[in-house]
Design brief:
The chain is an alpha/beta fold. It folds into two domains: 241 residues, NAD(P)-binding Rossmann-like Domain (Rossmann fold, 3-Layer(aba) Sandwich); 35 residues.
Length: 286
């Protein structure tokens, strides 16, 4: 077992993208990493030659038995899990009316319920030690909705709501939660991993259809660098005062700021109506 002071990271979805780059950086820094993927043969190279600091495990986050087994194995091997990074997930693009139930439910099982299961499996050990970090990979699509991404947005909005509540629950226990909101990055998200509706409707061609085409054609050309994103996540975990939300990439930051301004405008424009919904006594008290 590695020395007690070495941090132990567990990262889901490490075959490509953020998960793979993050696992590489963690191990390069001399730390311990539990590297997981549905197809473990794709991650064996990450843990080779790491003197026991790397552990490659098969993990489909939608399989609760695999989740429990992986966490138990990680804790038995390293004695603890200091940082959990819930990265496993994929996208599905369809206008809301075009959505196919099987695809939508499968995405929720991975992006949301899988994240929940892994988090709940890791929390008892973190609570016992009164320390830990939970990093949930959301998306700028977890803060702003886009045409053709409504169902994907819904999974990430759910992750954000859960994470906000979790952060308030575990902060007194010494556990920190960070929500990561990347914009477009050169990962496999918009490439082979992306699923699209089979039920296109012509009336949505100029909205959802146009965006689906743009996402697919832009794959591999995005401005975001996954290595820089992984470094940013490590920086945040090492910070003494990490943010609840970490926005990654210029496009994501600009989009988030635009939404904040729109929210401010709407709240101010309809303030009187909002306050008028209280009982008269409550309004008079204000």
């Amino acid at each position: 077992m590695p020395q007690q002071g070495i941090p132990v990271w567990l990262v889901t979805g490490c075959s490509t993208g953020f998960g793979r780059e993050l696992a590489k950086l963690v191990l390069e820094r001399g730390w311990c990493a539990v590297v997981t993927a549905r197809q473990p043969q794709k991650i064996q190279d990450l843990t080779a030659g790491t003197d026991g600091r790397g552990l490659a495990l098969k993990l489909d986050v939608t399989d609760s038995a695999q989740v429990a087994k992986a966490v138990k194995k990680a804790e038995a091997t390293f004695g603890k899990i200091d940082v959990l990074v819930n990265n496993a997930g994929f996208g599905y693009m369809a206008a809301v009316e075009e959505g196919e139930d099987d695809e939508v439910r499968a995405m929720f099982e991975t992006n949301f319920f899988g994240l929940v299961d892994v988090t709940r499996a890791v929390l008892p050990g973190m609570r016992q030690r009164r320390s830990g970090h939970i990093v949930n990979i959301s998306s700028i699509g977890g803060f702003v909705g886009f045409p053709s991404s409504g169902y994907y947005n819904a999974t990430k909005f759910a992750v954000e709501g859960l994470s906000e509540a979790l952060a308030k629950e575990v902060e007194p226990l010494g556990i920190k939660v960070v929500i990561v909101e990347p914009g477009p990055f050169r990962t496999d998200w918009a490439g082979r991993s992306l699923k699209q509706t089979r039920n296109g409707i012509e009336d949505y061609a100029k909205t959802a259809g146009t965006r689906r085409q743009a996402i697919s054609s832009g794959s591999g050309k995005q401005l975001g660098d996954p290595v820089c994103a992984a470094k940013a996540m490590i920086e945040v975990v090492q910070s003494s005062n990490p943010p609840l939300r970490l926005v990654l990439g210029r496009m994501a930051l600009e989009t988030a700021r635009s939404k904040l301004e729109l929210l401010r405008q709407d709240f101010n424009a309809w303030e009187k109506t909002s306050l008028g919904a209280d009982f008269p006594a409550a309004q008079a008290a204000k």
